[in-house]
Amino acid sequence: xxxxxxxxxxxxxxxxxxxxxxxxxxxxxxxxxxxxxxxxxxxxxxxxxxxxxxxxxxxxxxxxxxxxxxxxxxxxxxxxxxxxxxxxxxxxxxxxxxxxxxxxxxxxxxxxxxxxxxxxxxxxxxxxxxxxxxxxxxxxxxxxxxxxxxxxxxxxxxxxxxxxxxxxxxxxxxxxxxxxxxxxxxxxxxxxxxxxxxxxxxxxxxxxxxxxxxxxxxxxxxxxxxxxxxxxxxxxxxxxxxxxxxxxxxxxxxxxxxxxxxxxxxxxxxxxxxxxxxxxxxxxxxxxxxxxxxxxxxxxxxxxxxxxxxxxxxxxxxxxxxxxxxxxxxxxxxxxxxxxxxxxxxxxxxxxxxxxxxxxxxxxxxxxxxxxxxxxxxxxxxxxxxxxxxxxxxxxxxxxxxxxxxxxxxxxxxxxxxxxxxxxxxxxxxxxxxxxxxxxxxxxxxxxxxxxxxxxxxxxxxxxxxxxxxxxxxxxxxxxxxxxxxxxxxxxxxxxxxxxxxxxxxxxxxxxxxxxxxxxxxxxxxxxxxxxxxxxxxxxxxxxxxxxxxxxxxxxxxxxxxxxxxxxxxxxxxxxxxxxxxxxxxxxxxxxxxxxxxxxxxxxxxxxxxxxxxxxxxxxxxxxxxxxxxxxxxxxxxxxxxxxxxxxxxxxxxxxxxxxxxxxxxxxxxxxxxxxxxxxxxxxxxxxxxxxxxxxxxxxxxxxxxxxxxxxxxxxxxxxxxxxxxxxxxxxxxxxxxxxxxxxxxxxxxxxxxxxxxxxxxxxxxxxxxxxxxxxxxxxxxxxxxxxxxxxxxxxxxxxxxxxxxxxxxxxxxxxxxxxxxxxxxxxxxxxxx
Length: 834
What we know:
Blueprint: H1 22-31, H2 33-53, E1 58-66, H3 97-109, H4 112-122, E2 126-132, E3 135-138, E4 145-149, E5 155-157, E6 160-165, E7 174-178, E8 182-185, E9 190-193, E10 198-202, E11 209-211, E12 216-221, E13 230-236, H5 239-249, E14 251-254, E15 261-268, H6 271-329, H7 336-370, H8 389-411, H9 418-464, H10 468-502, E16 508-516, H11 526-551, H12 558-564, E17 569-574, H13 585-588, H14 593-608, E18 615-621, H15 628-641, E19 646-650, H16 658-661, H17 670-674, E20 685-686, E21 692-695, H18 704-707, H19 711-723, E22 726-730, E23 748-754, H20 760-773, E24 778-785, H21 809-815, H22 829-833
Helix pairs in contact: 1-11, 2-11, 3-8, 4-5, 4-6, 6-10, 7-9, 7-10, 8-9, 14-15
């Protein structure tokens, strides 16, 4: 046996830091462009259906100016000239008076009481809808019919009533559905009963009353015109439910932190309903404010009127007494001295009366505050002649704070809310200031009254020295003038109160009535939704393919092979539509793309083995299914077509299927040769091409590894090398140790990698094993490459016209249909011997 000293050549191998391969992902995206187009189309169609079945939402807003008047207030230091400021007390809460008042107005506007009054004036107990393609739209003030119901009869709320009108004006039966319905009494606004889920159909006709134990109503066409064909719905709402809906949808916010302008806004599919509600709400808010001011003016008028009635009686009596005294005593004039005394006494009496009245008011005020009565019922100080600016301002401030607290309690349930606590603290401080000022004024009035009394006593003593008639006249005239002046004063105050009531205006102004912010809906935003749908349709498959690309551990491109090893890639074999089952494709169509690829491989092998004319090539792979046997046949056929005698030696003793696929006799092959059952000539089979011979593996031996270590195998390889120009060995996978048993007889190795089949970890182990075993002259054959797979192409054309006597590609393609079946391409053993 000829001994060979193998030339050991190290196989280059290196590892590279893993980096993101953008070209790979771009190739994946490009390969599956139709998936992106499909998902983007589905997303856009979904967005279109979403817009078709979704009611657009419109924004409506209005602006309201809250006027906050600020007068002289002793609590803020404006009148006292001191540096004390009551707002400093609340700096820890960050709640200054102006900001707190604005927040109070926000709470008042959103309070249950205000919204409830606005809902009562809307009369929106019934909602009307039209149904198109399963999509429901509300017909606010656009319904072709009106539902008239009996308020004395209970009505079903929380349920929908649906009927259909056909082209002839005929109506269907009425469908009543509701998941959580309730029977409601509109007269006393109470829920009578909450039945279970309702779903029933009842007879129904237009202009006829439909009565049931749960409802009673009549559907009447609007303006007497026929109802257009279509499907309609209507539903009843209770008062509390409507109030909750409007409170939830209403948003009130300040326009600017330094301004007292409030913006009222709503968002719903029925902008006109929101406009009507907001306008009605602002009107109710202003009416309530005006009513409070008018109520105070009315109470003042009533108080003055009651005082006028009493003073009027006293004035009439004093006037009658004066006239009677003058007539009886025939008095026309009195002396200058008595007249002077009379004038002084009348003046002092007026001052005393005024001080007494003021003193009574201050006692009344202190008693009123002590009894904790509502400050809203207190009489205005001006009605009693009290014009002290400090008391007037304090009472106005106390009234405003009390009203704000009362209104705030309707919106804030928690008694410990910071706003409530702050207002209560303000009220206590103001009340204390009123009490202290009232006590001080009472002391001053007592001193003034004492002085006036002394002066009156002196005048009375002087009057007593006058004649009796003059003295009596002076007393009568004094009382008359006092009553007359008091009556005149009260008449003046009554006129002022009536004028004030007539000129009362709300403290708040509507700057902008409710109107849509834009003619375009706020949502859905078609442009944005279509853009998002398109991006989503593109991103979802991109993410899916990216994740798949990260998790995919199969070889997909030349670049991946180059990252794992720098073993040269000798050729890229393109994917053939006929697939791997067509083992003789190179013989049948040598000028096909597959044939051209193996022709290029044949040229690269000459460089791999450094120009040897007779050589042995072993073809291996990582595992089954990678095209190792197909590559062995095709490579051998390529050399045979060149005119060189070639033999295929199948040494894959573990799971070879070459003999069965080529329909060769069973039991004859390498295994039978190595065990001495057949001779070398008996295991060589011929093929249709005279230069190509086949040596199958034979039966599966129980010990293939030990069998391949026989020296007889080396002898056979050397004999075949002497007999044939080219020996192609169909080897076991490289991860099986069998290939290394006869590596010393091989001039070069071709490692087959199949696109989409060979695993990266397996390739890494195989390359590591090749390096470890120091195999020489190793090249890679990249098999079954599709250009559409992640952009990896094979780079060969389809128009080659040269061949080796087998005609053009088109001619061979036509001829292959007339060739014999696969089992007739190989001769029997006797023919092989010849």
